[in-house]
Model the fold of this input.
Amino acid sequence: MSHDPDCIFCKIIKGEIPCFKLYEDERTLSFMDINPVNPGHALIIPKFHTPNFFEIPLDWLADTMTTTQKIARAVQKTLEPHGLNILQANGPGAAQSVFHLHMHVVPRGEDDGVTMNWGIRPGNMDEIGALSERIRANIA
Ligand code: AMP
Ligand code: ZN
Done:
């Protein structure tokens, strides 16, 4: 599997930096976003360093999407938000800040004011950790 030693998500895959892990299998990993746009914001990544949507081999993309559906269902069941966006950014103009492909699962409220390029706001780690446990319990 391809890794980039300078990539923060590759470091999470290798266990070099911690995460609030939701799910892991041979080819994918899901964990909580530590700057959540809304509570329950989760990320899904392939265990394969590829910067964006354009380059990822299709079989890895399929596995990443399979895990994305699994996590989206668990977040939906846990929080029952008004809506839920599944998003992915390519390039700085699209507000991509980590250049290892990742899917965002973002619970939404009707009037939450979230725009497409949201700002980074550090989250409360106790709240994120508690939510990660609740979501993990709903992964089927
Ligand atoms: P993007 O802006 O689409 O590239 O999204 C990158 C996301 O990764 C942002 O929402 C960050 O909050 C999130 N992020 C960055 N570093 C970490 C980390 N160490 N653990 C969890 N999420 C992170
Ligand atoms: Zn990487």
